[in-house]
């Protein structure tokens, strides 16, 4: 045994030892957070067991020593169906075989949310749960963890006192002072794949958590050619929490360091465990923040997702080179690739569940650049995208990608009865309407939404619960809409380069097809109740509607009552040509630029001079001619907060800036030649400090910088009291009209995909 790292943990707010177990849970359930070489993990089973004890493995009156020796040495064998075969029968003290069925299920920690417990049960594969994680990937049946632990317990108590001492944290040959309950998890660790690193085989391991002693031990499993599965003794390591007087320590220990084999992926080098992992565990242990979101990719197979994502990434990576939009291609291309990979696996597993062969059809509402539509269509799913504004990149996809320019207004003319799925990927003002449109299109229509901007049915969403983040509150609102429309709403977290990456999915209904009429009345009443009525708590039914005479039918936005017979016989016909809720405004076709770039040049120049005057302590600025040379030190000016700068500007200027996104801060950042804005403060940029930074930039950025060299007049040469701090040959901007060069416009290669 060797200790590869130890860290003292300061706990000023008394979060330990609970914070330690929260940190362990991250490493157990989301190891890719710390080890970027991992794609993820599956939790296959979880059991509560006891420590193996030597006296429990003594000679039984009915068992000979030779029989016990053979039983202890017998590995756990895989059954013909791919799982572990039954292990030797044991009593209650040796494992879980002697416990009742209720004790063999997942334990829910005290105070855990029942919804989280249900999700954990789904991941663990508990019988009777609708989980599908790992289906068809050679999983061990959850019940076979008992057999595996029983076989391992016998081998420990019968002939491996060193490993038993490592597990218990005691001296070799000694026993735990008191029986301790263990939490044993069978998990599958999934490596990440890449173009130069094909997907390695997933590795299974048993994780033993001893809460009483503050240890968690990771035991890798190996399988021989005959299908026998046993614990591999080489790569065993343990994370331990200990206390000395009033100081806490977290340690990482390796059972047999001389036999440690590092594959660089699932099992890193001991130095990484004692350095990187230990530092993260120590930091996580004293972080009081808890995420209100589920772990990533909790509804689909991580292995299938990893393979599909890498395939799509390799197939569509050339889009980055020919991207004609002004948006960042690295972000948008790989984000849409990841969303497409998720949907393809989600739909593949749905076809397996329903016994379907035809690929699902879809419509992407507010499709934007249309890349998601292009990928899904190319991969064989019939569908189309609709957006109010055409993009340049649409012409590059080819005729097989169907993209339409048009506005979607929530009414009965914009329904999709023949479509399987509606997609809302950052669909803005349409986001809350997508569950409604899906519900009214057909009973079999499902939806997938990835909310970004916060919109209600007829405008911006207004916060009502300050104890939640705005993002969490808005997600809860979309869940509420889905419930009111009659959907079972599921939530998952995608792996995309975005801060808004939680998706909501409605795959099934809460009612039978015969109840469509009454459910549509409930939808109508809920939509109308959004006129200033408070939201229901998450997970509860919507607030009771107002009396029928006081609530207008969806086809009567003025509040007049529709006859009940008409609503029962054909609510859709009654709503024809009418908005489902008055006040909805589709996005304008012409996108208004609100990043201060469209402001008049003289207005921008005036604000820049005003702010520079403030930062230079009121020193007089030049307004067009080069300053005279001076021998005094170059004036770098001071630093002011954005609030202090705003207080010095006149009211008319501020009101004009407020109509732009980001306001004053955006304008100053746009003028990066003059100002540097950092952490809410602004100061004059000193270009002597920029040259070392430029040399460290990637080659692509250095090339762009060289193309823009001397294409603009130097602001400091023209306006600063001391002139430019750099000599003319070093300054990237022109010192006078004579040095100006014409701008170079890079030509993009056009390509039809």
Automatic annotation (TrEMBL):
Residues 100-116 have a biased composition (Basic and acidic residues). Residues 117-130 have a biased composition (Low complexity). It comes from the Eukaryota. Residues 708-738 form the C3H1-type domain. PROSITE patterns: ZF_C3H1. It is found in: Cytoplasm. Pfam families: AdoMet_MTase (PF07757). Its EC number is 2.1.1.211. Residues 53-138, 530-572 are annotated as: Disordered. A zinc finger (C3H1-type) spans 708-738. GO terms for biological process: tRNA methylation. GO terms for cellular component: cytoplasm. It catalyses: uridine(44) in tRNA(Ser) + S-adenosyl-L-methionine = 2'-O-methyluridine(44) in tRNA(Ser) + S-adenosyl-L-homocysteine + H(+). Keywords: Acetylation, Cytoplasm, Metal-binding, Methyltransferase, S-adenosyl-L-methionine, Transferase, tRNA processing, Zinc, Zinc-finger. It is an enzyme of class 2 (transferase). GO terms for molecular function: tRNA(Ser) (uridine(44)-2'-O-)-methyltransferase activity; zinc ion binding. Adenosyl-L-methionine (AdoMet)-dependent tRNA (uracil-O(2)-)-methyltransferase. Probable adenosyl-L-methionine (AdoMet)-dependent tRNA (uracil-O(2)-)-methyltransferase. Belongs to the TRM44 family. This is tRNA (uracil-O(2)-)-methyltransferase. The lineage of its organism: Eukaryota, Metazoa, Chordata, Craniata, Vertebrata. The gene is TRMT44.
